[in-house]
Amino acid sequence: MQKIDLSRSLPHARIAELPNPYFGKVRDCYDLPDGTRLLISSDRISAFDQILAVIPWKGQVLTQLARYWFDATTDIAPNHVIGYPDPNVVHARRVTILPVEIVVRGYLAGTTSTSILTRYKAGARTMYGHSLPEGLRDNQALPQAIITPTSKAFDGGHDEPLTAEDIVASGLMTKTQWDEVSAKAMALFARGQKMSEKQGLILVDTKYEFGTDADGNVLLADEIHTPDSSRYWIAEGYENAFGNGIRPPSFDKDVIRSWVVARCDPYRDQIPAIPLEMIEKTAMVYIGAYERITGQPFRPDAGGASPLDRVRSRLTPFFTA
């Protein structure tokens, strides 16, 4: 484990020399003249449709962990990656993101308004086109993994639940696209669960984003099986936690989401400032996730330059006049 240097953070990557910017909740992106794209992972952490804090080295963890999973799943789904000019940066094919977030769930879990646990505890038994049996307990394995798609919110909007029929009928995807995307998502999740199990982990649920390139090919985009897009539990502590009705030990951003939920209703109340000790704890969770999932030590890219200056320097070849 690394000692956390709270000064080594990348709150943003706004670089004036790069063209056509788009600033998301976590990534700062630039569309290049050659039809490719730079996606820079900042250290911002988002939940409940807003930015919560800046977590040192989080962006590098996410980028390098996604790289690990992209490399391990190319046989299932081709992805958008061209290269990695910096530990926080992906140089990618430009894709048009399909306007549906594909969430695959293997357990009755979650804290957000769209999670199946939240809806199940509110009395819903039919959701996202699936029927769940009575008598399920918090954090119990589902009879089988299911896809719970949501609309992809833009400009601060809220994700809305969808069914497969909704997606095709509304034209968000064609039937062919949905069949391809859903099949690949289920195969990716199965691969992720199998690989995670070997590391003593449970991949509980995850989000995938797919897009189409200029030729209409469907590519896996954004990230895959990172602590920002996925929920992991530590397998050795699951049975005891489940038996006692408590949250299984994990190392995803639920650590900070749970801290917030314990103090306010994040969809109605002002979220309190995240204290430094929680920021440090969350950074350790991300680093621990990388090391546990990959089986490799995390090596932060730390030098004399600030993270932003380092990123700017390594992206100089992409600058436009």
The second-level CATH architecture of the largest domain is 2-Layer Sandwich
- SSE pattern: EEEEEHEEEEHEEEEHHEEEHHHH
- What is the terminal separation in angstroms? 42 Å
Oligomer: single chain
**Helical content, roughly?**
25-40%
> How does the overall form come out from the CA principal axes?
globular
**Relevant CATH superfamily of the largest domain:** ATP-grasp fold, B domain
Indicate the mean pLDDT.
Answer: 92
CATH fold call of the largest domain: D-amino Acid Aminotransferase, Chain A, domain 1
Number of helices: 8
Total number of domains = 2
* β-sheet strand percentage: 15-25%
- CATH top level of the largest domain is Alpha Beta
Number of strands: 16
Question: Could you explain how this protein is built, in words?
Answer:
The chain is built from 8 helices and 16 strands. Helix 1 (58-73) packs parallel to helix 7 (276-294). With 321 residues, the chain is an alpha+beta fold. The strands form 4 sheets. Strands 8, 9, 12, 13, 14, 15 and 16 form a 7-stranded antiparallel β-sheet that branches. Strands 1-2-3-7-6 form a 5-stranded antiparallel β-sheet. The protein has a two-stranded antiparallel sheet with strand order 4-5. The longest helix has 24 residues, at 175-198. The protein has helices at 58-73, 116-121, 164-169, 175-198, 235-243, 254-261, 276-294, 307-314; strands at residues 21-23, 27-31, 36-41, 44-47, 50-54, 81-86, 89-93, 96-97, 100-107, 126-127, 130-131, 141-147, 150-151, 201-212, 218-221, 230-234. It folds into 2 domains: 21-96 and 273-318, 2-Layer Sandwich (Phosphorylase Kinase, domain 1), CATH 3.30.200; 97-243, ATP-grasp fold, B domain (D-amino Acid Aminotransferase, Chain A, domain 1).
